[in-house]
Amino acid sequence: MAKTDLNTEPAMAAFLRSLPAGLISLHSSHPAPLTAAQLTELIDFKPAQLPHILSQDYAPMAGSEELRQAIADAHYTSTQADHILTTCGAQEALFVTMQALLNKGDQVVCLTPVFEPLTLQAKMAGAQVSTVSLLPDQQWAIDWPALKKVVNKKTRLLIINFPHNPTGKHITEQELNRLLELCRQHDCWLLSDEVFRGLEHQSGRRLPAAVDLYDKAISIAVMSKAYGMPAIRLGWIACRHPHLRQRMLTVKRHISICGSRLDENVAIQILPHSETIFNHHRGQLNHNRSFLADCLPQLPHLRCHPPEAGATCFARLNTQQTLTGQVFAEQLAQQQGLLVYPDTCFVTDIPGFRLSIADAAIAEHYPLLKTD
Ligand SMILES: Cc1ncc(COP(=O)(O)O)c(C=O)c1O
């Protein structure tokens, strides 16, 4: 690990530290969490099962068999329970994957804007990261000519994240296959961050998990995003390569050792009802997306392509604006008391900020997305 990278605070943390407390959050990337009572009503969740877990021992390192089977059943076709390693959130899944897969000097390619840890974690593992920007004027389409120039036989890993944070862009199955073909052609690994898989705004747009399609693909997912359950820190890695999985387990042994049995129990109860939970969240996301679209004509300084999936979109500042995303977000915090994360938090210089469509309570604040 490059220890010097630890001296640089992630952009999101640095931005947050510069702001006053008590702002109204318009940045969340996960749907509003359901209460235990709502879950009981929706899927017959049984909180009464939880206390007896306290007398149990550590969970198995890779996650219990029951949990990994529930994940495999809910998410994958050919990928099996034995191919899954559970982690403390997707963040640990990323760390474990990068440390197990990458060596100093390895070349990694990533699409931007991007959830910052996807690049930072690769750099911490010693890799050199090249970025290719999605095309903002083409509804955040992949820039295929640019990507094909950058991915070559020296590339160790291509990182993708669809449904995409922060833009809300989603790709088609044909485009996913094209990405896989590019990896096959250069024999490189694919890390597919699938934490928003399940939150497609239109049914029928769900992509297959990359791990089911390519033997060098690693799929990562988590309970906090598509399920809207950040309070349980439960993510996972699906990887069909036994040697790499063994290395991942070794990394995990050095950090969290194993997951929490309480979290495991909650996830085991939730996972068989994944579609019910996704449908519930989809209703709210679609509602907020339409409300945002209705507000945009009153916000002519913003250009915002409606998100196709996930809980966020990226609002660009019109070119007439001389403000950077960072200055706009700072002014928004000071003048309107609203918190959004600017472009700098997503490894991009496209001026703008990430805007949430997650929560019923935030929509009423969209008309305030302006500064003097
Ligand atoms: C694309 C992406 N991957 C991974 C994560 C990490 O998920 P968690 O915070 O649940 O570990 C996030 C969190 O925002 C994310 O947006």
UniProtKB/TrEMBL annotation:
InterPro entries: Aminotransferase_I/II_large, PyrdxlP-dep_Trfase, PyrdxlP-dep_Trfase_major, PyrdxlP-dep_Trfase_small. This is Aminotransferase. GO terms for molecular function: pyridoxal phosphate binding; transaminase activity. Residues 57-359 form the Aminotransferase class I/classII large domain. The keyword Metal-binding does not apply. Pfam families: Aminotran_1_2. Keywords: Aminotransferase, Transferase. It comes from the Bacteria. Gene3D superfamilies: Aspartate Aminotransferase, domain 1, Type I PLP-dependent aspartate aminotransferase-like (Major domain). The keyword Transferase applies.
